[in-house]
């Protein structure tokens, strides 16, 4: 069983206080909840909390709890321009605050993970507004070791899959998570954990990554400059590059094959031109860089083929597709990561696979050896601040306590400050 370890990493970074992202390590950031009207001081008020059951409507919920139906219509009218109260969905939570006559004083409905509807009684009726879910933010440290896949190393839950995909997105320019991972590779992640009423709900931003892949260490630090956050390596160079390392997106594949523990990519071949990825028919294929479609159709041995033209005379080929994605026709402008089509075996192919080529000024080049052009680095004026941040994060990587896979789940509901642990070492 693959070990996943998680804990909390507030210390060290607490001392930095350099930019908005890391303010979540501060006690002042830990709550985004706005003060609610004081209802606890009224002894006659009580709370009714539950979740929408299949087939339930607010009308039936009012009946179930013996609430005044006339107030439901008044609440619907107040919320009409904010959110339609007929759109309540099974599994979503709600909360009423009512008085001793079962008259509604306040109502809260969880629209989605990030938004809730709040309806309050006023002197002249009800008022309604959408609010951000008041999550408590905690900094979590998660680590794991690869046995087969990154998803397997993190866990099977929806939240863990989301974290795996986010991690792969950040390092996608340097690591092909479909084929580059090796048994024994390891990773450490500092991520924002979002809690509601003390219960872990989901992961937020990834703040930093340290990953060892095939003996090579990759690091990523989230840093804000000029109001924009991005990921950089220890030298302040952007992790974003003009070309992704692979046309088979780990994000798309993991989402499509999330029911399977075993990764769908079977093997990789490197013929005289390009790279062949053996994968199940229907595996999604993504553009490795921004560009323009110059060919989309059937072309001899390539079968169904998409050719993209990029800057500096670069071209990329995506061959043997089972089908081309809708709208991907000659002249269309595409962005890095856009869906081009699906793996197949059209043309001269003995089995389902993607044939991927890179060419420059018409000459084939080896994608594995192509030096990728990086995005903007950390500005010279911001480097002292960035180095201070990187040093603080490295201290967390080196000195934080990590937990076993079983303890990790428990630690999500009991995440404390690690300062005392770090100060004792």
Based on helices, strands and strand pairing, what is the structural class? alpha+beta
Unreliable residue runs: 1-34, 257-266, 404-409, 412-425
Any idea what the radius of gyration is?
Answer: 26 Å
Level of helix content?
Answer: 10-25%
Write the H/E string, N to C. EEHHEEEEEHHEEEEHEEEEEEEEEEHHH
DSSP strand tally = 21
What portion of the residues fall into strands of 2 or more residues?
A: 25-35%
**Global shape:** globular
Major sheet summary line: 10 strands, antiparallel
Query: How far is the first residue's CA from the last residue's CA?
Result: 30 Å
Total DSSP helices: 8
What is the mean predicted local confidence, pLDDT? 81
Structure description:
- By secondary structure, the chain is an alpha+beta fold.
- The protein has helices at residues 58-65, 69-79, 150-154, 158-171, 250-256, 383-399, 405-411, 419-423, and strands spanning 4-8, 46-51, 93-98, 104-110, 115-122, 125-132, 136-145, 186-196, 199-213, 216-225, 228-232, 267-269, 275-278, 284-286, 291-298, 304-309, 314-324, 333-334, 339-343, 353-360, 363-365.
- A hairpin with a 2-residue loop joins strand 9 (199-213) and strand 10.
- Helix 4 packs antiparallel against helix 5 (250-256).
- The protein starts with a strand and ends with a helix.
- The model is unreliable at 1-34, 257-266, 404-409 and 412-425 (pLDDT under 50).
């Amino acid at each position: 069983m693959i070990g996943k370890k998680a804990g909390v990493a507030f210390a060290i970074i607490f001392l930095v206080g350099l930019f908005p992202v890391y303010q979540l390590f501060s006690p002042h950031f830990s709550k985004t909840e706005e003060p609610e009207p004081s209802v606890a001081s009224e002894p006659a008020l009580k709370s009714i909390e539950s979740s929408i059951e299949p087939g339930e409507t607010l009308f039936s919920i009012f009946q179930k709890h013996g609430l005044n139906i006339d107030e439901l219509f008044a609440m619907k009218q107040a919320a009409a321009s904010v959110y339609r109260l007929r759109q309540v969905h099974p599994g979503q939570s709600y909360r009423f605050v009512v008085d001793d006559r079962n008259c509604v004083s306040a109502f809260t409905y969880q629209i989605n993970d990030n938004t809730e509807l709040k309806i309050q009684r006023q002197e002249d009726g009800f008022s309604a507004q959408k609010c951000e879910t008041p999550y408590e933010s905690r900094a979590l440290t998660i680590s794991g070791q690869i046995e087969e896949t990154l998803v397997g190393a993190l866990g099977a839950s929806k939240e863990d899959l989301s974290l795996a995909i986010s991690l792969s997105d950040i390092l996608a320019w340097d690591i092909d998570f479909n084929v580059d991972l090796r048994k024994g590779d390891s990773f450490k992640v500092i991520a924002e954990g979002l809690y509601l009423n003390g219960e872990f709900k989901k992961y937020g931003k990834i703040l930093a990554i340290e990953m060892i892949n095939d003996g090579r260490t990759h690091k990523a630090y989230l840093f804000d400059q000029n109001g924009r956050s991005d990921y950089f390596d220890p030298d302040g160079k952007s992790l974003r590059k003009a070309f992704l390392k692979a046309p088979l997106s780990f994000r798309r594949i993991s989402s499509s094959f999330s029911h399977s523990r075993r990764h769908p990519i079977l093997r990789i071949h490197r013929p005289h031109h390009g790279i062949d990825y053996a994968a199940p028919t229907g595996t999604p294929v993504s553009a490795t860089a921004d560009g323009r479609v110059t060919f989309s159709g059937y072309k001899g041995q390539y079968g169904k083929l998409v050719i993209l033209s990029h800057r500096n005379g670069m071209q990329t080929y995506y061959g043997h597709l089972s089908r081309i994605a809708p709208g991907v026709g000659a002249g269309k402008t595409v962005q890095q990561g856009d869906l081009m089509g699906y793996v197949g075996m059209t043309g001269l192919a003995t089995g389902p696979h993607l044939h991927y080529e890179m060419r420059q000024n018409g000459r084939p080049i080896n994608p594995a050896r192509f030096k990728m052009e990086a995005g903007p680095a950390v500005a010279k004026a911001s480097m002292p601040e960035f180095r201070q941040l990187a040093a603080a994060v490295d201290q967390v990587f080196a000195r934080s306590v990590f937990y076993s896979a079983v303890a990790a789940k428990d630690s999500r509901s009991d995440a404390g400050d690690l300062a005392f642990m770090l100060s004792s070492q």
